[in-house]
């Protein structure tokens, strides 16, 4: 179990990533922004890698709590297929674009840094599996004929949509835009094959 100070350090690091980017995240900056005595962050996370992993762990914890109802979804309630899934996924995306926007930006900062730090890449990929594996199970329960491939395509679609809305030049979608776009994508994936030759 993480200490309150460790949570404060990690939460502050998330805010700094959202406000200042990767260059603005230093041990000293965390101490100052969190109102902690100098050296406090270094005592918890000696190296930059340790600070980044602590931040990623906390970000993951917050996002799992936020999306728990979607991540633990099983076959129950999925008989409506695409429409039910689209509604649930649209709600999760809307959180990323609104209440969770700062966490989304911090996650993008960590994702980019993971391309340069193998140790962070390993941790980041492990975290990604926590969100991707339930998607495969959900699509299987909903009747996908190729849930692994479909799950990857949905991740690519949703990540691109969120990235475009948060840091790209695209217009921010409405909740209905999200739901309709996801429903259109999912309908194609969950369509039942024609049994006729």
Number of domains: 2
Mean residue pLDDT:
89
Task: List the helices and strands in order.
Answer: HHHHHHHHHH
Number of DSSP helical runs: 10
What name does CATH use for the topology of the largest domain?
Tetracycline Repressor, domain 2
CATH architecture of the largest domain: Orthogonal Bundle
Overall CATH class of the largest domain: Mainly Alpha
The strand count comes to: 0
- The percent range for strand residues is under 5%
Can you tell me the residue ranges where pLDDT is under 50 for at least 5 consecutive residues? none
- Whole-number radius of gyration? 19 Å
Largest sheet: none
Shape: elongated
Proportion in helices = over 70%
Judged by helices, strands and strand pairing, the structural class is: mainly alpha
> Between the first and last Cα atoms, what is the distance in angstroms?
58 Å
